[in-house]
Amino acid sequence: MFQIIKKSNKSFARVGVVKTPHGNVMTPCFMPIATKGAVKNLTPDDLKSLGADLILGNTYHLWLRPGVKVINKVGGLHKFMNWSGPILTDSGGYQVFSLENKIKNQKSK
């Protein structure tokens, strides 16, 4: 659920909150990228201290590595990432098409 908290009288700017089962995310927000399930060089505690409410993962990269079996074995993506807050995963559609030939070439080796 998305709720607008305040709107600007001068522009289309607004402040809102996205409510999720894993916590609320204020918008606009700082969203670190955890492409393969980890934000490089930062721990979950580091991210919290920096004010991150939400982490972005890439479905395609997570599917490639570590893979669905590994993520399920540890109890899901939140446990795998050691992150209790909201996680946004994109579709990975761009990577599917942009990396398609590279992956085909690797599989044929």
Roughly what fraction of the amino acids lie in strands?
A: 15-25%
Give a count of the beta strands, DSSP E runs of length 2 or more. Answer: 5
In order across it, which strands form the biggest sheet?
Answer: 1-2-3
Shape assignment:
globular
Number of helices: 6
Spell out the helices and strands N to C: EEEHEHHHEHH
What's this model, at a glance?
This protein has six helices and five strands.
Q: Mind sketching the topology for me?
A:
Blueprint: E1 2-7, E2 14-20, E3 23-27, H1 44-49, E4 55-58, H2 59-64, H3 68-73, H4 77-81, E5 87-90, H5 93-98, H6 100-107
Parallel strand pairs: 4-5
Antiparallel strand pairs: 1-2, 2-3
What attributes does this structure have?
alpha+beta; 3-stranded antiparallel β-sheet; 6 helices; 5 strands
Describe, in plain words, how this protein is organized in 3D.
By secondary structure, the protein is of the alpha+beta class. 34% of the residues lie in helices and 24% in strands. The protein is built from six helices and five strands. The chain has helices at 44-49, 59-64, 68-73, 77-81, 93-98, 100-107, and strands spanning 2-7, 14-20, 23-27, 55-58, 87-90. The strands form two sheets. Strands 1-2-3 form a three-stranded antiparallel sheet, with no helix packed on it. A two-stranded parallel ribbon has the order 4-5. The radius of gyration is 17 Å and the shape is globular. The mean pLDDT is 90.
